[in-house]
Amino acid sequence: MEPKMTKTRAVTCLLALCCIALGATPPAAAQEVLTSPPANESGVVEVDVSFLLVDVMGVYDAEQEISADLFYRLNWSDPRLAFDEAESRFLKMDSIWAPNFQSTSNRGASEMLPRVVIVDPDGNATYTQRLTGRFGAPTYLADFPFDRHEISFPFFFATSEGVVEYQVSAGPIVEISSLLATPDWKVEGGTISTEPLSISAALPPVPGATFTVEATRITSHYIWNTILPLIVIVMMSWTVFWAPPAQIAVQFGFSATSILTVIAYRFALANQVPPLSYSTRLDVFLNGAFILAFFALVEVIITARLIYRERVSAAERVDLHARWVFPLLLAGIAVRAFLL
Description:
The chain is 35% helix and 29% strand. It is α+β, with helices and mostly antiparallel strands. It folds into 3 domains: 1-35; 38-218, Distorted Sandwich (Acetylcholine Binding Protein, Chain: A); 221-338, Up-down Bundle (Methane Monooxygenase Hydroxylase, Chain G, domain 1).
């Protein structure tokens, strides 16, 4: 029986050496590490969380999503992983206990780094992961296109066997790269909140960490390519106030063209924002521009009726008053839409 036991011990030692050579904890010698967390006497696992936003590839208002390149790093201590070597070692994440850190806003983002934990001789473990892809980013767009948002990346710790509580703290890295690719947003700030997350009203809050940045829309595109052309279109409808009242066909043509152009603008902008139960600032300006273009058409009809009744002087007075009333109305609409 003794030779058999000796042979068994030899095989076990050989497997352990192979596991160490491959960078994995020997299963038989570390069963506790595989199944239970390194909690202290109170059952608390202390974890530091760091975030680095490398890039923002795009913000998609209609889908309420953001395409981002995000690094996160977890640090915790596990004395059971300590060893008597000078250099750190790499362990497969599946071979030891490690926090199960999950994103609640992940909409297809992929893990780009191998699931490997770096452990120093004192048993301090570090896990770094890179998520690239789309994340949910619900935003309130009432100020669109002059809006500013706090975009959050919430993560939570999934429950592990034996874990009573997580003690989460912000790590040393809370940064945003200075080389962001998105041309229409300015992203800055960057804070970490370690408050528990309330994923569902029916469930108690769970431990987690939320990385938040501030995103401000760069409005020059909308000013030069949407708002300014729309102002020109509305002003084009005012040409009827200078045309002779008797030229009804010319006046009606200008007014109808202006209305159709404003409607086309609304269709063109419809795919840039999601269907909302409220109006944005741009909606207010578009609706005001549409109403002004419609009132210009009404003014044409009124002057046509006056000409039909041979009241030419009255038609000219209506045109004269419209020349200053309509610009004032457009200025009021712009103030209401973009300043108030």
